[in-house]
Design a protein that fits this description.
It is a single chain. The chain is an all-alpha fold. It has 2 domains: 3-83, no CATH class; 100-159, Winged helix-like DNA-binding domain superfamily/Winged helix DNA-binding domain (Arc Repressor Mutant, subunit A), CATH 1.10.10.10. The chain has helices at 3-26, 29-44, 53-81, 100-110, 114-125, 130-137, 141-159.
């Protein structure tokens, strides 16, 4: 399968899942779209052979994660020196009112630091184990456990008591302790 064919299959069959993954990380529609596009460009900019759609999706998901973390680091560095310019062009962001469970989860995820957010999304939304999360993030398992513990406490403070594992309530948010039914 050629690069163009593989890209078409990936966009058609898994584009929505990739967008959803990026949206969980960014919390913003346009930022998620840009993130997916950047990840696709990075993945398919070099010719690769022998890729299956599953392999390509894994590469794109890893690229989404890398681009998101790189951008978060860049924003952090910029915010520490931006005041030196003496301009404050960026208007204060007015978060959308929390309506319904999806918006509540989005708002709760927004309170997490980038590393905590990535760990939480990989663990509780992608249903990866702690060793798998550690491998994806390139961190020690203990570090990932710390991020997950901190994220879990912050999410619980924002969302209230979290559902017990094995909850069959379809309306309950996909959060710590809740896996996909």
């Amino acid at each position: 399968m050629g690069d163009e064919d593989l890209l078409a299959v990936l966009a058609r069959e898994r584009g929505r899942a990739l967008f959803g993954y990026a949206y969980l990380l960014t919390g913003e529609r346009h930022a998620a779209e840009d993130l997916v596009q950047e990840a696709l460009v990075r993945t398919f900019a070099r010719r690769r052979s022998g890729f299956s759609p599953d392999d390509a999706e894994a590469y794109v998901r890893r690229a989404i994660l890398t681009v998101y973390l790189d951008d978060a680091r860049r924003r952090t560095r910029w915010s520490s020196v931006r005041h030196l310019l003496g301009r404050h062009d960026e208007p204060a962001r007015d978060p959308a009112p929390a309506v319904g469970t999806a918006l509540d989860v989005r708002a709760a995820l927004a309170t997490l630091a980038p590393q905590e957010r990535v760990a939480a999304v990989l663990r509780w939304c992608e249903d990866l184990t702690v060793p798998q999360v550690a491998d994806r993030m390139g961190l020690a398992q203990g570090t990932v456990k710390r991020y997950l513990s901190t994220a879990g406490h912050k999410l619980e403070a924002s969302l209230g008591p979290l559902p017990e594992p094995g909850t069959d309530d379809e309306t309950a948010p996909l959060t710590p302790g809740r896996t996909r039914p």
